[in-house]
Amino acid sequence: MRIPKVFKPKTRRHRKAQPDPDEPEPDEPEPDEPGPMAQVPKLTPHDFALLGLRFDRTQTLRKGAAKAPQMLRKVLPKLETYVYGVDLSASSLEDLGDVNVKSFKELAKQTAVKLASTKKFPIIIGGEHTVSLAAVRALKPDAVVILDAHPDCEASESHDGVTRKIAELVGPENVFLFGARVASAAEDEYLGSSGINVVDSLNKLQWVRGRVYLSIDMDVLDPSIIASVGNPEPMGLSFSEVTQAIKLVAPYLIAADFVEFTPMQDKSAEIHALMAGKLIYSTMAAIVKARQK
Ligand SMILES: [Mn+2]
What we know:
The chain is α/β, with parallel strands linked by helices. The chain has one domain (45-291): 3-Layer(aba) Sandwich (Arginase, Chain A). 29% of the residues lie in helices and 16% in strands. It has 7 helices and 10 strands. It has helices spanning 68-75, 104-116, 130-139, 162-170, 185-194, 239-249, 268-291; strands at 48-53, 82-83, 86-87, 94-99, 121-126, 143-147, 175-178, 197-199, 212-217, 253-259. The strands form 2 sheets. The chain has an 8-stranded parallel beta sheet with strand order 4-1-5-10-9-6-7-8, sandwiched between helices. A two-stranded antiparallel ribbon has the order 2-3. Strand 2 (82-83) and strand 3 form a beta hairpin. Helix 3 (130-139) packs parallel to helix 4. Bound molecules: manganese (II) ion (MN). Manganese (II) ion binds at residues 129, 148, 150, 152, 159, 217, 260. Manganese (II) ion is lined by residues 129, 148, 150, 152, 159, 217, 260.
């Protein structure tokens, strides 16, 4: 695929995200009824921009996520671009370049500048998971959907506390966490009372509404698919489960990030990068397909 050039999203605000997926208000539409989706702006393969956030300062187990943007840029042009009936080869993925800084404060500042410089749909490549907080701060979504093997709900400034920080920003009732399968005792306790939506069934994602930010920690996938992550965890989601989740929220997305891709030191990193690239294209195609009507 040719690395392309731009998009003009006509972002409109829709209704706020549903606070409690289990107790919809009486005037809420049924999940299978057409809701605010009808208001969602059209989006074409030309409407994407790529931003690399090369930040992995707080990683603990495996460092190296800062190398991901460079590696995935090389891989994307090698992949099949006809996905879900959408021809991404016709697209022009505007490249916003990288943010490469040493402090989170500077990351947040420069990320905001980069994101303000385009009207296209940002495809953000981390970096460790902390980068999502920088992007959410800049974009101010109504809701955030996080796909992650870990809840990242520690009371910490590091990558393992990013969901909690995002919940403080957008409200825990507007955070949807899917795929988490390992938590510390402290995280379990926090999640039990925080009000964050822990999604145990894909159906619950049908309640996500508003301007939605999607964050995909690559470790949500099973390590048999991508082992090149900062903190690999067994018994992960299949590629199909992840793409199903993405399709459900695609109509509402305003940005998506792909974080924690951390190349192995051997040739397997290239295979993992190909899989990560396929996930990025699947996401783009799902968004275009959901918005082409
Ligand atoms: Mn994470």
